[in-house]
Each structure stands twice: as C-alpha cells, then as structure tokens.
Amino acid sequence: MSEQLIVGTIGRAHGIRGQVAVRPRTDSIEERFAPGAVLQAGDRTLTVASFNLQQGRLVVAFAGVADRSAAELLRGLDLVVEGIPDTIGEDEYHDSELVGLVAVDPGGARLGEVTAVHHNPSQDLLVLRTDAGERMVPFVMELVPEVDVPGGRLVVNPIPGLLTEVPDED
Fold first, then answer.
1. What's the CA gap between 146 and 154, in Å, rounded?
2. What distance in Å separates the CA atoms of residue 46 and residue 56, rounded to the nearest whole number?
3. Cα–Cα 20 to 30 A to 127, which of 89, 110, 120, 146?
C-alpha cells in the first residue's frame, strides 16, 4: 500500500523564467528535488528541471513551466510523492506520522492536536491546534520528550508562553 508524502509547498514565482520558491517539508531536498524527480501538485504532474538554494531559500524550475505567469498558477500547491522510504532513523518521524497526534502535557492533560510540521533550517516546528489557537512548538527533545505514534499522542513540556499568549507587562 502506497502512502502520499508532502515534500514541499510552492510559494511565489521567482524571476521571469518559471522558477518558484518552495517551502521544503523534507530533509532530503537533494533527493526529492533532483532533476528528473516527478512530483504531484494538485491534478498536475511536475518534473523537476533544476533546483538551487538562494539565500537559504529553495528555488525550483519544473519542465514545461516557462514563465512567471505559469509559475504563479502553481502557488500554494503541495508537492506530493508516492510512498515513504522504508529506512528511517531511530527517533525520526515522517510528517504523516505526526499530523493528527494528540499533544498532552507530562500529566496526560490534552493540550491540542498536531496539524502540520514546518521544516526550517534551524529546527522543525510542530503546529498545534489548541483552545488558544494555532501554536508552534519546536520539535526538540527538551520540549517534546515522548512521541507515541501507535498510541496516537506525543508529550509536550508546556514551558511558560509556549502554548498561550504571553500577557503584556505594564
């Protein structure tokens, strides 16, 4: 059985030759965006022509996307591949395994639900839907010491200000 894996989200057009900025959602940029890689974007199949990193931002050119107007039509689409690699390191998780997990505090009280994972150069962020709105939690051992995928939950150490708005000091 094949599972879909989101490897990036297309942002704005970059330049006039059809390139787009992509927010990567994979640690395997060189593999997933290698020339010739085939990705799904909505109802379109896109083939990577080239990619490069410009000032820390992933810029991708797709075959058949020749100008800025064509590139803008792709904006906001998720880039999807079929299947998840069999090999994964210990204490590593695919986004699809984390999304939907219930976040609880160390005592077991419900804090929210993971709705997305953002991959940044410095660290990954879990997006939690909480009663106070959407909150971002750095996906580091100190804040997320336990992930129980089969149990459908993860533990978050809710340090002050992490999941609630910090009140203004007068």
1. 6
2. 23
3. 89
